[in-house]
Automatic annotation (TrEMBL):
Keyword check for Amino-acid biosynthesis: no
Keywords: Hydrolase, Nucleotide-binding, Signal
Organism: Paenibacillus foliorum
GO biological process, one term: nucleotide catabolic process
Family: Belongs to the 5'-nucleotidase family.
GO molecular function terms noted in the UniProt entry: 5'-nucleotidase activity; metal ion binding; nucleotide binding; UDP-sugar diphosphatase activity
Protein name: Bifunctional metallophosphatase/5'-nucleotidase
Gene3D superfamilies given in the database record: 3.60.21.10, 5'-Nucleotidase, C-terminal domain
Top-level division of the source organism's lineage: Bacteria
Lineage of producing organism: Bacteria, Bacillati, Bacillota, Bacilli, Bacillales
Record domain Calcineurin-like phosphoesterase: where: 8-207
One Gene Ontology cellular component annotation held by this UniProt entry: outer membrane-bounded periplasmic space
Length: 481
């Protein structure tokens, strides 16, 4: 008599980005799917960017809200995304994962630069047994070497690391699953270049694979973004060889479970919402006058940020897009939470050496509606549109009636005219160095990133300086006829 096939169910999420409103539904779905398959046959995983510091629950709890929800939902292993690894300090991650995580944290390609080893709260891989099947888990995160180095991490090239671990684990396990916060193209590359991977669970590029993609002998899965979907993979194994004979999966909408929310997860979220709001109510400044923001014309709040960037980096020019602000500030107290509301992006200051030609091109484009109204998402940006450029250290004369790319008449850097063939040190934001928004601002050299400060940290310091506030109303853009 033929023995029945062995079975495994994998539940997975990725790139939830602190969308807490989806988490009770996902928890309810996972509970139902775990019961139907049997807990001993079910493995629950997250592929990174569960946290996002734009959300009050995450910011106000330093990520504890996410950890509590993940524990309650029953995750057994996760890898970290860039939103965990690059927006939290080493100390914060240590406090979170060392004391609060009830799951394994896979850090296969992230080493502590001080020790050369995986952090104490992580593991390079994990072998877990489910229903008589041994599963080897590998977790790799995006290869942002410049940023990780500044935070004290030694990030390793992920595909090479994965290849080495697959060779090590292949004879020890029946199934190899890679938790990959690398993006779909890199997942496809990995599937081609690294033999022996059975399943890649992906994330980072927010791609949704409603039906798994098969590349060679590897099945690639992903569940989109923001907790709108979750993934299910059902695997059957030959009971004698322990080799998979079928791997089938799908992505399902969390909205299908919106009426079956997990009450315990909902209660956790409500508790952290209340405690986080209390933390974020801390007053950091008091304004004697309102500070307006405007996406399409020069405004004091944008000028204040450009000035703060210039001051922080210590150079002659500050440039930042007006779309970093979702709103202005009213007269009266300014709280930590209000700064988060109006400037939620986890974007860092940077220094870049740019030619006068590239600066001029960006200033010309800052006058064009197609740039000002350009919709953006990703690369740390949590706003709505790009907006014009706010500046400091410049005086710009322009004619709106002139042809495109001929509107700027003169630009002064201090008391000197901008020279097309001269290089200038510019304080700006990391987003521009990725070729996002004003593309000429990505063509510089000698880039230096300043971590762990966010733009709202720069703003907090500037709002405490009355002289900086007074200077924010000084005009930099002058329209001529």
């Amino acid at each position: 008599m033929t023995s029945p096939l062995l079975r495994l169910r994998i539940l997975h999420t990725n790139d939830i980005h602190s969308h807490f409103e989806q988490m009770p539904s996902i928890a309810a779905a996972f509970h139902e799917l775990r019961v139907s398959a049997g807990a001993e046959h079910t493995l629950t995983l997250d592929i990174g960017d569960h946290m996002d510091r734009m959300r009050p629950e995450t910011e106000g709890s330093c990520g504890s809200a996410n950890l509590a929800v993940m524990n309650e939902t029953g995750y057994e292993a996760v890898t970290i995304g860039n939103n965990e690894g690059l927006t939290f300090s080493k100390e914060a991650l240590n406090n979170l994962y060392s004391s609060e995580a009830s799951f394994k944290v896979l850090c296969s390609n992230l080493l502590d630069s001080a020790t050369g080893k995986v952090p104490s709260w992580g593991v390079p891989y994990h072998i877990i047994e489910k229903g008589g099947i041994r599963i080897g888990l590998i977790g790799v995160t995006a290869y942002f070497i410049d940023f990780y180095t500044l935070l004290g991490w030694d990030i390793q090239e992920p595909i090479g690391v994965t290849a080495n671990l697959v060779r090590e684990l292949r004879t020890q396990v029946d199934l190899i699953v890679v938790l990959s916060h690398l993006g779909l193209r890199n997942d496809e590359k990995m599937a081609i270049e690294v033999p022996g991977i059975d399943i890649i669970l992906g994330g980072h590029t927010h791609h949704l694979l409603e039906i798994p993609q098969r590349t060679g002998d590897t099945v690639i899965c992903a569940a989109g973004k923001f907790g709108q979907y979750f993934g299910v993979v059902d695997v059957q194994f030959d009971p004698t060889t322990r080799k998979p004979v079928s791997i089938e999966g799908y992505a399902r909408s969390a909205n299908d479970y919106s009426e079956a929310e997990d009450d315990r997860v909902r209660a956790l979220i409500e508790r952290f919402e209340a405690s986080s709001n209390q933390v974020l109510s801390q007053e950091v400044a008091y304004l004697q006058q309102p500070l307006a923001a405007d996406w399409y014309m020069e405004a004091p709040l944008g000028n204040l940020l450009a000035s703060g960037l210039r001051k922080r980096v210590g150079v002659d020019i500050g440039l930042v897009n007006a779309g970093q602000f979702l709103d202005g500030l009213a007269k009266g107290p300014v709280t930590v939470g209000r700064l988060l509301e109006i400037c939620p992006s986890p974007i860092n200051p940077c220094l870049i050496v740019l030619s006068g030609k590239n600066i001029l091109q960006a200033l010309e484009e800052a006058l064009l509606p197609e740039f000002q109204k350009k919709l953006l998402y990703g690369f740390g940006f949590r706003g709505k549109v790009l907006g014009m450029l706010n500046v400091d250290g410049l005086r710009i004369e322009y004619d709106l009636n002139a042809p495109e790319y001929s509107k700027i008449k003169q630009v002064w850097v201090g008391s000197e005219l901008l020279a097309i063939d001269k290089d200038y040190k510019v304080a700006t934001i990391d987003m521009f160095t990725f070729g996002v928004g004003y593309h000429s601002l990505s063509k510089g050299k000698e880039i230096q990133y300043f971590l762990p400060e966010f733009l709202r940290d720069i703003m907090q310091a500037e709002l405490q300086d009355p002289e900086s506030i007074d200077k924010s109303s000084v005009q930099h853009w002058f329209e001529t006829s």
